[in-house]
């Protein structure tokens, strides 16, 4: 009897202890959590600084945590958190999944809260910047970063290869895709380093190729999202150009041969100005120039992340109020160092130059201000993840030296048509 | 009061004293249950309950993002039957499993036979071939990912011999071959150790008798070794097949199912549907399909054992 009782008592005590320790400690105040893709120290310091300033005036908020999820697979990680009932209070959302999030109803409508914030200047937000995040005049996320793509250039490598620097080509009016690829191929041939890298593409995240095919006036689908664009003549021409640049000219590193511009492994890379933070150690001389002209003329492409608040969270109102602070004119100007703001009044060269001492005013004028003026946002569609995967699988047959380009593009259309029609 | 007490007491005195509830048997039983309780609770909570829930989810359309959870009956299973991608996925899964099982078992057996010699330093070789088993799977796969790049280590070695290696992870055939080989090298040590143990249970005198009868090495292997270690072959083949159907990390790290969908095996496809496309209901239906396949294969192997496993004859 004693043995049985003793075992029972021990088990019961153990369970009680587990229950006692397992119960969440009541935190003093609200703990806000926001998921971001960046793990960059400079980015996070800036965000932490703004959060600290907010908490000074809002004692009810005990902490604001910025949780870094890896760029590759960011949206999957985020939706897994939501599925597990552990959604963050706020999340950075990429433009390619904007239609999914906006139409899903998980996000808190923001326009009234932002309008009601004193000194916010809601009408200063550019309608073109908020378009992706609005539905029937309800704003579901704040277009936190409206960031045009530019070309970072490693001037040391360019000089070493004896190639005309892009800035000189721009001055001479010869900064075209043909010349850019020829220069990139020359650098590769002479230095053995990679010529031009479309950052984050890696023959998988194909929406980054919009930075190239937009120069041909091509698009993966029509403006209304219903018709496939991969089998259109402009797209076929752009892809033939890219295929030749990769496999014949070797101006871009091929599949399975990654090269990091910021580690000095490539002469040029197409990416956004937020990545300028990676240049801090000054290992090489660099420049930032707009995308080369394509057959369709001058163009620009914008990546546009939004910040949304999840409405099911217990702290949704507090999160929205923090977002209003994070995106007010004062903080928006600070964030402009890395993330160009969607505010009309702040898209001026002087202000952006002050915010971003790493970039020269001329670079800001040419890439950021002009880019936002004429730029098209990277492609997005509802059901993005599935479309992205099907296109990725279809384009794989294109990324080989002997590819039948037209057949591959038509096959892509055959696969995504039912998805576009949904 | 007194009367009542006497009434109460009467039956007790009339019959034999009631046996205490906590008999030795019951106490032992309780102790036994308490000892298995942690494991039982764990299995129930993290294995049985999710299994039941997956079957339940598979009858629903569950969009995580939209927060919708609607009963659709056999809807997901109808989608399963009509899914244009599924034949390709099942084909890739079969190719991976067959390739893995054949390569893994034959290599494991070969290594075991070679390492079963009584030579100096043999334990070093055994440890060497077993060591990948204890390496972290993802770390192992990432390193192989670097080696298999176009300008990676494998092609570097090939170049020394004047051979231009393929772009391993970007060709459909070579990508599948790569994931199989990476997985074989990772786990072949485990099967090798099992085979080694089995080989050492084969009585030496059988070989002696065979030699006297004039049997060569090959005949000895076929007529003595193979039949006597057949229970181990059954065990390893079941473990390897079931394991091969669960492959995920290697695919996720090395190929993400590509090129095309050539390495999209069932588990990876399930992951895509559930976690990337937010179709948890359909993902669950795929999980049920996987469960059925594993169950059928295991049952079939178990039934077949009478035919070819020595002790079961």
Give a quick precis of the structure.
The complex is a heterodimer of chains A (422) and B (313). Helices cover 43% and strands 15% of the residues of chain A.
Chart the SSEs and their pairings.
The complex is a heterodimer of chains A (about 425) and B (about 325).
Chain A lengths: L1 H21 L7 E7 L4 H17 L3 E8 L5 H10 L6 E4 L4 H7 L6 H6 L10 H4 L3 E2 L2 E2 L1 E14 H6 L5 H7 L4 H15 L2 E5 L11 H4 L19 H16 L17 E7 L13 E4 L11 E9 L6 H11 L2 H7 L13 H7 L5 H14 L1 E2 L6 H12 L9 H17 L1
Parallel strand pairs in A: 1-2, 1-3, 7-8, 10-11
Antiparallel strand pairs in A: 3-10, 4-5, 6-8, 6-9, 6-10
Helix pairs in contact in A: 14-15, 16-17
Chain B lengths: L1 H13 L9 H34 L2 E4 L4 E4 L3 H8 L3 H30 L6 H13 L2 H11 L5 H8 L11 H28 L4 H9 L4 H12 L1 H16 L3 H6 L11 H11 L3 H29 L5
Antiparallel strand pairs in B: 1-2
Task: Explain what the structure shows.
The complex is a heterodimer of chains A (422) and B (313). By secondary structure, chain A is of the alpha/beta class. Chain A has a domain at 30-147 and 303-377: Periplasmic binding protein-like II (D-Maltodextrin-Binding Protein, domain 2, 3-Layer(aba) Sandwich), CATH 3.40.190. Chain A is built from 17 helices and 11 strands. In chain A, strands 1, 2, 3, 6, 7, 8, 9, 10 and 11 form a 9-stranded mixed β-sheet that branches. Chain B contains 14 helices and 2 strands. Chain B has a two-stranded antiparallel ribbon with strand order 1-2. In chain B, a hairpin with a 4-residue loop joins β1 and β2 (68-71). In chain B, α4 packs parallel to α8. Chain B is globular and about 75 Å long. Mean pLDDT of chain B is 87; it is low at 1-13.
């Amino acid at each position: 009897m004693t043995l049985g009782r003793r075992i029972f008592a021990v088990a019961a005590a153990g369970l009680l202890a587990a229950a006692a320790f397992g119960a969440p400690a009541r935190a003093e105040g609200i703990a806000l959590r926001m998921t971001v893709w960046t793990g960059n120290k400079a980015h996070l310091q800036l965000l932490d600084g703004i959060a600290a300033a907010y908490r000074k005036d809002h004692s009810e908020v005990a902490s604001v945590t910025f949780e870094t999820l890896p760029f590759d697979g960011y949206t999957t990680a985020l939706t897994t958190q939501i599925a597990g009932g552990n959604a963050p209070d706020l999340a950075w959302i990429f433009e390619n999944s904007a239609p999914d999030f906006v139409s899903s109803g998980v996000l808190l409508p923001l326009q009234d809260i932002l309008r009601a914030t004193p000194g916010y200047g809601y009408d200063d937000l550019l309608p073109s910047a908020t378009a992706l995040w609005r539905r029937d005049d309800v704003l579901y996320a704040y277009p936190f970063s409206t960031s045009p793509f530019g070309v970072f250039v490693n001037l040391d490598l360019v000089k070493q290869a004896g190639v005309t620097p892009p800035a000189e080509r721009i001055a001479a009016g010869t900064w075209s895709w043909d010349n850019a690829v020829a220069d990139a191929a020359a650098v590769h041939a002479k230095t053995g380093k990679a010529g031009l890298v479309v950052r984050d593409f890696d023959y998988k995240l194909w929406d980054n190729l919009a930075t190239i095919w937009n120069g041909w006036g091509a698009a993966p689908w029509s403006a209304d999202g219903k018709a496939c664009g991969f089998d259109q003549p402009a797209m076929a021409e752009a892809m033939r150009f890219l295929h030749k640049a990769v496999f014949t000219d070797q101006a871009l590193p091929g599949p399975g041969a990654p090269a990091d511009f910021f580690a000095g492994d490539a002469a040029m890379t197409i990416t956004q100005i937020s990545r300028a933070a990676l240049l801090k150690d000054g290992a090489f001389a660099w420049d930032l120039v707009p995308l080369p002209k394509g057959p369709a003329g001058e163009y620009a492409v914008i990546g546009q992340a939004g910040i949304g608040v999840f409405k099911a969270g217990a702290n949704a109102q507090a999160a929205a109020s923090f977002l209003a602070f994070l995106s007010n004119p004062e903080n928006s100007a600070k964030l402009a160092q890395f993330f160009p703001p969607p505010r009309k009044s702040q898209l001026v060269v002087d202000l952006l130059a002050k915010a971003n001492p790493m970039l020269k005013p001329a670079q800001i004028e040419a890439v950021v201000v002009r880019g936002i003026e004429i730029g098209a946002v990277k492609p997005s569609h509802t059901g993005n993840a599935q479309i992205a995967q099907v296109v990725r699988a279809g384009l794989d047959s294109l990324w080989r030296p002997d590819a039948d380009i037209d057949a591959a593009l038509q096959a892509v259309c055959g696969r995504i048509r039912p998805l576009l029609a949904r | 009061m007194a009367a009542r007490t006497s009434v109460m007491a009467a039956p007790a005195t009339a019959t034999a004293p009631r046996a205490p509830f906590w008999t030795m048997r019951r106490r032992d039983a309780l102790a036994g249950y308490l000892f298995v309780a942690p494991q039982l609770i764990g299995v129930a909570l993290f294995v049985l309950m999710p299994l039941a829930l997956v079957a339940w989810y598979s009858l629903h359309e569950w969009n995580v993002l939209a927060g919708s959870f609607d009963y659709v009956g056999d809807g997901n299973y109808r989608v399963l039957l009509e899914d244009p991608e599924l034949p390709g996925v099942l084909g890739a899964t079969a190719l991976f499993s067959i390739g893995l099982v054949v390569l893994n078992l034959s290599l494991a057996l070969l290594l075991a036979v070679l390492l079963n010699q009584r030579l100096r330093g043999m334990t070093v070789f055994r440890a060497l071939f077993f060591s990948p088993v204890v390496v972290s799977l993802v770390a192992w796969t990432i390193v192989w990912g670097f080696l298999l790049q176009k300008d990676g280590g494998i092609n570097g070695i090939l170049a020394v011999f004047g051979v231009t290696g393929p772009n391993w992870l970007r060709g459909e055939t070579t990508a599948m071959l790569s994931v199989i080989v990476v997985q074989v090298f990772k786990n072949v040590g485990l099967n090798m150790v099992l085979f080694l143990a089995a080989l050492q249970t084969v009585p030496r005198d059988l070989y002696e008798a065979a030699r006297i009868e004039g049997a060569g090495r090959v005949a000895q292997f076929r007529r003595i070794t193979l039949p006597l270690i057949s229970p181990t072959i059954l065990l390893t083949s079941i473990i390897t097949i079931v394991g091969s159907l669960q492959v995920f990390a290697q695919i996720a790290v090395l190929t993400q199912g590509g090129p095309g969908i050539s390495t999209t095996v069932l588990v990876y496809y399930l992951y895509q549907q559930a976690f990337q496309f937010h179709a948890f209901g359909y993902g669950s239906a795929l999980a049920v399909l996987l469960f059925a396949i594993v169950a059928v294969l295991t049952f079939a192997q178990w039934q077949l054992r009478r035919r070819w496993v020595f002790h079961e004859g």
